[in-house]
Amino acid sequence: MSIAIDACAAQHQGDRKEQQDRVAILPHARRKGVALAVVADGMGGHTGGALAAEQVVHTAKTNLDHFIGTDESPQHMLQNSMQEAHTMIKASRFMNEMDPHSTAVMLLLQPGRVTWGHCGDSRLYHFRGKQLVRRTIDHSYVEHLIATGKITPAEALNHPNRNVLLASLGGQEDPKITLDEVSELVAGDSFVLCSDGLWAYFDDLELGTLIADNSARQACEILIDKARQRGKGGGDNLSLAIIKLIDALPPKKPAPPPGFVPRPRG
């Protein structure tokens, strides 16, 4: 049976004064079955973070529109999108006297192939059913401490420096961009892109279960509601995009015209 796509993007301002996240699911203008999902979490004071995140989405859309797939690899397209966004955000600080930065996580969907890249601590999760297959590793101080064995994942949840990033788009240093891909896709696979305002409130099993048991739209609504409750009035901006691969229903046979009587065989 062929595979269909169930997708939804959503966000909430949380308890912040401004929405500095940006999220989008962008279909390719000319290539059927090709789409790009993007989540960007902007930082940099009033309006600066929002402008940085907006630049990430704008640059990604421009690169998607020019992506043919024959002379450029998906990894190269994603790498270029983030590198170009970094350059544009960095340049904007001289014009706007701000210090804008943004995380980025992008997923390029093509028939039989999903490629993604990220910079910062906005995440991508790949589930098969309810089980986590893999997730991106944050470019953050606490993930560095976990990797070097200095703290445990449980200790990282409440570490005082858990929001310190080691990489972002728009910073003084060249961004660290990590790429990955999966080409063996099955119905039941799902991909979640989200900012830390959402993933901070869920463990892998709960996140996978809620997505497996609901449509993409319903899962977005439930996850936002739960994150808002758990934020207890101190919640960050939160954004997510969910892409679920599901069994495509066979096309319905056209109904016979009124008064049609089938002829007996023989």
* Low-pLDDT windows of residues: none
Percent range of helical residues: 25-40%
Number of distinct beta strands: 11
Give the C-alpha Rg: 21 Å
- CATH architecture, please? 4-Layer Sandwich
Per the principal axes of the C-alpha atoms, what is the gross shape?
A: globular
General description of the model:
It comes from Dechloromonas hankyongensis. This protein has 266 residues and is of the alpha+beta class. The protein has one domain (3-137, 177-247): PPM-type phosphatase domain (Phosphatase 2c, domain 1). 30% of the residues lie in helices and 28% in strands. It is built from seven helices and eleven strands. It has helices at 48-65, 74-96, 141-147, 153-156, 196-199, 204-212, 216-231; strands spanning 3-12, 21-27, 35-43, 101-102, 104-110, 113-119, 123-128, 131-135, 178-182, 189-194, 238-247. Strands 2, 3, 4, 5, 6 and 9 form a six-stranded antiparallel β-sheet that branches. It has a five-stranded antiparallel β-sheet with strand order 1-11-10-7-8. A hairpin with a 2-residue loop joins strand 5 (104-110) and strand 6. Helix 1 packs antiparallel against helix 2 (74-96). The model has no long low-confidence stretch (mean pLDDT 91).
